[in-house]
Write a structure and sequence with these properties.
Blueprint lengths: L5 H12 L5 H10 L10 H11 L15 E3 L5 E3 L6 H18 L1
Antiparallel strand pairs: 1-2
Helix pairs in contact: 1-2, 2-3
Keywords: Endonuclease, Hydrolase, Nuclease
Protein name: Restriction endonuclease
GO molecular function, one term: endonuclease activity
């Protein structure tokens, strides 16, 4: 089902991915699951800017009033609804970084 906004498509993509993800992973899920049709020349940049505007821990020129995402230290984005507390976010970041080391 095609979303009416990029932010909603990104939320759906993160729910499908079920983990904090990079802009590329979120964009690829949006395309794969046909969550949004882009008309932009650089749709990954549009996804990145949309995520930034809806981030709880970012401040750029034009922020959206509704915040759905948190940008993690490694550059990935997580849904705020999946983060119960700041300490859980830090724990999840550390766990994911450790998992990446063991996979290498």
């Amino acid at each position: 089902m095609i979303s009416k906004s990029i932010a909603k498509a990104a939320i759906e993509a993160l729910n499908i991915l079920n983990r904090a993800s990079s802009v590329s992973d979120i964009y690829n899920a949006i395309i794969e699951y046909k969550l949004y049709e882009f008309g932009a020349r650089d749709p990954k940049s549009v996804v990145r800017i949309t995520l930034e505007r809806h981030c709880i821990n970012k401040t750029i020129g034009v922020m959206h009033q509704k915040r759905f995402f948190k940008k993690l230290n490694d550059g990935r984005y997580a849904l705020m609804s999946n983060i119960k507390s700041e300490s859980e976010c830090v724990l999840n970041e550390n766990k994911n970084n450790t998992d990446d080391v063991y996979r290498s």
